Amino acid sequence: MELSLSVQAAIAVVVILLAGLVRGITGFGGAMVMAPSLSLVIHPVTAVVIALALESAAAVTMLPQALRRVKWGVILPIGLMAVLTIPVGGWLLGTIDRDIARRVIAGMVVLFAGLMALGWRYPGPTRLPVSLALGGLSGVLIGATSMGGPPVILYLLAGPDPIDQTRANLIVFITLLSAVGLAILAALGVASWTDGAWCAALAPLYLGATIVGARLYGFFDERAFRRFTLIFMMVLSSALLLM
């Protein structure tokens, strides 16, 4: 049954506020909460565009500092290959059935949230062929689901760089690739002006919730809350898979 615009908007506001709080407290997971939940009440294309746009906006404030620390030798091969394959993901998003798209998005959350909750890391060395292959996969996932970050996170966390360096690399990668992904989806005709209106309306709520979440950070045990968040994402997306 098609929901009215007012009901869609009310559900979207709740989802965006929750996603912003999670993003602010844990530093990740906004898209993983937004994309599968929103795809249940609005079109998956719109859900992906919103997730990409709001994650880009939230990360912009962290980008200048990250750019001073980014290791381009690590990020460029992954990023360039991802740019080449984002159109493939965008084409998939725009052509596959709505219910299939929603289930693919939810399935990706279950997979990557499960791997992150288990503490899995890529076990091999960070070699160029692996980086290129990972970039290709990440680009397809960004275009199709908005969630190209988790495989790169799992890959880079296994590398030799200190955590601050890896964090800077990930901020630059996710911010720039999300922006490129939005531009490519628009160029392919997948994203519409209606999607842009949703983004403009929801962005202040998401950014505000992110700020509140960041202020609440000190009141939580970070490791325990991250694990709770990942388990919550898995349960939520598993339920969406069955609907």
Secondary structure layout plus pairing:
Elements: H1 5-26, H2 30-38, H3 44-60, H4 63-69, H5 72-95, H6 98-117, H7 128-145, H8 149-156, H9 163-187, H10 193-216, H11 222-242
Helix pairs in contact: 1-2, 1-10, 2-3, 2-6, 2-11, 3-7, 3-9, 3-10, 4-9, 5-7, 5-9, 6-11, 7-8, 8-9
Describe the structure.
The chain has one domain. It contains eleven helices and no strands. It has 243 residues and is mostly helical. The relative contact order is 0.20. The longest helix is centred in the C-terminal third of the chain and has 25 residues, at 163-187. It is found in: Cell membrane. Keywords: Cell membrane, Membrane, Transmembrane, Transmembrane helix, Transport. This is Probable membrane transporter protein. The chain crosses the membrane at residues 40-60, 72-94, 100-120, 132-158, 170-191, 198-218, 224-242.
End-to-end separation in angstroms reads 13 Å
- Largest beta-sheet details: none
Proportion in helices = over 70%
**What spatial form do the alpha-carbon principal axes imply?**
globular
Number of spatially distinct domains: 1
Structural class: mainly alpha
Q: If helices are DSSP runs of H or I spanning 4 or more residues, what is the number of helices?
A: 11
Helix and strand element order: HHHHHHHHHHH
Instruction: Please give the number of β-strands.
Output: 0
Low-confidence stretches: none
Multimer state: single chain
Average of per-residue pLDDT values: 84
Beta-strand proportion: under 5%
Any idea what the radius of gyration is? 17 Å
Subcellular location: Cell membrane
Main location: membrane
Keywords: Cell membrane, Membrane, Transmembrane, Transmembrane helix, Transport
Family: Belongs to the 4-toluene sulfonate uptake permease (TSUP) (TC 2.A.102) family.
